Amino acid sequence: MNKKLSEFCAEKGMAVNGMQAYGAISDYEVSVRELNANQASNSGEYPYQFHISFYATDDQKRSIKNALDDAKIKRCQFHLTEYGLFVALTDFTTGKLIERLPSLFELFISTISNNGGLTREYCPKCGKEFSDNKQEIRMDGFSIGIDSDCKESINAAIDAENKAFEEAPNNYLKGVCGALVGGVIGIVVAIILFNLGFYSSIAAIVSIVVGTLLYKKFGGKPTKMMIVIVSVITLVFMALSVFLCYFIDAGIAAKEVGLDISAMEAFKIIMDDAEIAGMFKVDMIMVLLFSIIGVVLESVYISKSLKRKQHV
């Protein structure tokens, strides 16, 4: 964690551990984390992040949100969560941010308190007062204390959801239909780019993204097999796009010179030319190479999104 932020947390009596901190400010439970550059870039969120835990009704949370919206806090992202308030902050320098933190926390906590948000003595999930029943959970990277009964009910819901997912039919045929539509869209993009003289991973990424969305939209079950199916269809269709480009060009060229032959016959003729056949092989290899790069990158991203919820 940034040294200045770490010192701020320590001064507030919070326990600092690596890139995270946990404790209380003005009798409200606060969890802190700092994102590295890659995490911040991928999430689109500011790097210095805080979660203030409290219980409030939906109406009270709406009032809190409206009050913070009206405050027009600069370089601040926030939203209400199931367990309280998420805040992400940044500034021109960390020093300037640290200077702002006392007044910002005064604003956040007074807004929460004035609108009925309960303190850390109460479970932020159910509002029940803690006795010896408080347990810490990890939620979206933050440490949050909740009632033990709430923790059990959350885990039971996760188990039920995961069980329902496992027992759901795979619907491979429906999913493949969606992936095929994505492949066709990818072919269109690939042909456009190819005719513009570009080798690119864009068409493959479009194909696998659209194919994945339609795989699920058509009723296919989002599993690792989905990634395999969509990836294979994408690569086959990317290879097909090269063939179609040469096939179409051969048919057009035949008509231009007055040959009364089919496009397939014209394609066979140009493939007898060693130079054109060599160009075809090079184009096929390059398109597949860039397609594999796109498929791998997108598959890694999709694979992460398929992870099932674990116990809190």
Keywords:
312 residues; 10 helices; alpha+beta; two-stranded antiparallel ribbon; elongated; six-stranded antiparallel β-sheet; single chain
Model description:
The model has no long low-confidence stretch (mean pLDDT 92). Helix content is 59%, strand content 15%. Strands 1-2-3-4-6-5 form a six-stranded antiparallel β-sheet, covered by helices on one side. α7 crosses α8 (224-256). The protein has 312 residues and is an alpha+beta fold. The chain is built from ten helices and eight strands. The longest helix has 33 residues, at 224-256.
Topology:
Layout: H1 3-11, E1 15-17, E2 20-25, E3 28-34, H2 37-43, E4 48-53, H3 58-71, E5 76-81, E6 84-89, H4 94-114, E7 134-139, E8 142-147, H5 148-167, H6 172-195, H7 202-217, H8 224-256, H9 263-271, H10 274-305
Antiparallel strand pairs: 1-2, 2-3, 3-4, 4-6, 5-6, 7-8
Helix pairs in contact: 3-4, 6-7, 6-8, 7-8, 7-10, 8-9, 8-10
